[in-house]
Write a structure and sequence with these properties.
mainly alpha; elongated
Length: about 210
């Protein structure tokens, strides 16, 4: 009798499951201003504190909102700051650094002598040199050539491209190479806007291996 009752309950449950699935799927459908149900809504509707935008109307987007704090979907002001502002001035005396702790490069184009004294903050590791070589192939090879012999594909067009093994170039410091990549020199254009500070130092490390050939 017990086994028969169990079978009957299982059969009824099988009949009920499709109906339950239809009800659940129907409840998730969006209609009109109703966005429907969402799984983990905070994953889709995070609160962005964007520095260049600030919506102070707490009711903005309330028709769409399912925020836990009950505010409108588009409200993005930071109540923890004065005037609910999203951007604040950094603490006096602080200096922005990169992810690797590098300080901003402050030397100007004409500070070439001071630049020669700056040391490369990146180690001469295989990883740094390999990445520097990859970047060199993208940004430098076409002029300086794959081995730094001034025999790149467009070197004949830009006369005066130096060879890294020439006496005047062989002993150039890492700081000098970095500065030239940053600001350019003579017919070479500046690459500071195209390459991050870290990438420029990586290329300088790779150029050092070409100087030593």
């Amino acid at each position: 009798m017990k086994n028969k009752l169990t079978v009957v309950m299982i059969n009824r449950l099988k009949q009920f499951l499709p109906l339950l699935s239809i009800v659940l799927l129907g409840a998730c459908a969006a209609k009109g201003d109703n966005p429907g149900l969402e799984y983990a809504p905070q994953m889709y509707h995070s609160i962005p504190y964007e520095p260049l935008t600030q919506i102070k109307d707490k009711e903005a987007g309330s028709w769409l909102s399912n925020r836990e704090d009950g505010l409108g979907e588009f409200y993005n002001s930071n109540d923890n700051n004065p005037y609910s502002q999203n951007v604040r001035q950094p603490v006096a005396g602080t200096v922005r650094r990169t992810n690797n702790g590098m300080l901003p490069y402050r030397l100007g184009k004409d500070d070439i002598e001071a630049a020669a004294l700056v040391e490369n903050p990146l180690p001469a590791s295989d990883e740094v040199i390999a990445e520097g070589g990859r970047l060199y192939n993208l940004y430098c090879d076409h002029c300086h050539g794959p081995a730094g012999k001034a025999d790149g594909a467009v070197a004949p067009v830009f006369l005066g491209v130096p060879s890294y093994t020439a006496p005047a170039q062989k002993n150039l410091s890492q700081g000098h190479v970095f500065h030239v990549i940053t600001w350019g020199i003579r017919r070479m254009g500046a690459h500071g806007s195209q390459l991050s500070e870290e990438k420029r130092w990586q290329i300088a490390r790779y150029v050092q291996t070409l100087q030593q050939q």
